[in-house]
């Protein structure tokens, strides 16, 4: 599950584009449309079915996850609204409902702090959307942004399903000159060649420094490269024995993030910045900024950690 929130997007982003194109081509051949029609628009999901029902399906259509519980009154307001909008959007996203009482592991691994909480999974990458029973106008705005991000970043279009005529699918993303290089990076990851993946992502960034897929892929591939071959028990013991050793804390933070413990990794490095000075302090700060790239700038945990880092520095 460590890859659910933090690491799956490296490989899944490229695969998602390919699957989306294949789905469109097959639908065109059969005279239909691709998208969410292959399954229900609203469904319950548990830990056992998460990979199939959410991760795999997220390569074809954005999956919105509603974390709820029977005792939660705001959940009873938000849940029906999300279900109604899932039908209205007619396949541009699907809604997975997670009962947190029965699925504590998912609740913890997504870092949910209160419910209702709404996330999305696009091409295997989790995106926090909002918490609480938001008004309908705000929910619609978030969903519109989600559909746009799914198309622009991953080439995924949730097409109308069933009787949803008149609900336009987002325009198909044009091919870019870097698709072959990004494909080479994904192939290298498949083969376990992390060095090759890093080089491929750097090749893209040398020509297009702002390419979001390459930036994310490079940050995650470099993280995987760093933790490869680490002895987790030894690394964590060294960090526990020497709280003021910046290098030990940096190595442990890499393990934290690779294991999906995002806030632990950020907190560890912020504490290292507070406790150290000079080159050690700067090394902890730089690694923290690199880990921000792994998660993405829009994640609220990154925003909170940036604020905490500023306080630690100044």
Automatic annotation (TrEMBL):
GO biological process, one term: cell redox homeostasis
Top-level taxon in the UniProt lineage: Bacteria
InterPro entries named in the record: Thioredoxin-like_sf, Thioredoxin_CS, Thioredoxin_domain, TPR-like_helical_dom_sf
Thioredoxin domain span: 14-148
One Pfam family matching this protein: Thioredoxin
Protein name: Co-chaperone YbbN
């Amino acid at each position: 599950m460590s890859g659910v929130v933090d690491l799956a997007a490296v490989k899944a982003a490229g695969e998602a584009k390919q699957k989306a194109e294949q789905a469109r081509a097959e639908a065109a051949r059969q005279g239909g449309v691709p998208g969410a029609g292959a399954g229900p628009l609203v469904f319950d999901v548990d830990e056992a079915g998460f990979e199939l029902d959410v991760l795999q399906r997220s390569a074809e259509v954005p999956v919105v996850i509603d974390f709820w519980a029977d005792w939660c009154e705001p959940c009873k307001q938000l849940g029906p609204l999300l279900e109604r909008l899932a039908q209205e959007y007619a396949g541009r996203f699907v809604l997975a409902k997670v009962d947190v009482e029965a699925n504590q592991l998912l609740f913890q691994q997504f870092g949910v702090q209160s419910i209702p909480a709404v996330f999305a999974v696009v091409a295997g990458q989790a995106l926090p959307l909002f918490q609480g029973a938001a008004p309908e106008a705000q929910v619609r705005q978030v969903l519109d942004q989600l559909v746009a991000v799914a198309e622009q970043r991953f080439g995924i279009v949730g097409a109308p399903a069933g009787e949803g005529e008149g609900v336009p699918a987002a325009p198909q993303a044009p091919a870019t000159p870097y698709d072959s290089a990004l494909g080479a990076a994904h192939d290298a990851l498949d083969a376990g060649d992390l060095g090759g993946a890093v080089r491929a992502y750097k090749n893209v960034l040398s020509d297009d420094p702002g390419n979001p897929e390459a930036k994310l892929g490079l940050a995650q591939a470099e993280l995987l490269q760093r933790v490869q071959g680490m002895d987790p028990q030894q690394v964590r013991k060294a960090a526990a024995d020497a709280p003021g050793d910046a290098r030990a804390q940096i190595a442990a933070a890499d393990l934290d993030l690779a294991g999906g413990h995002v806030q632990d990794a950020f907190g560890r490095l912020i504490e290292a910045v507070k406790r150290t000075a000079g080159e050690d302090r700067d090394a902890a700060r730089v690694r923290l900024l690199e880990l921000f790239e792994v998660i993405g700038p829009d994640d609220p945990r990154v925003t909170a950690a940036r604020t905490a880092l500023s306080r630690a520095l100044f």
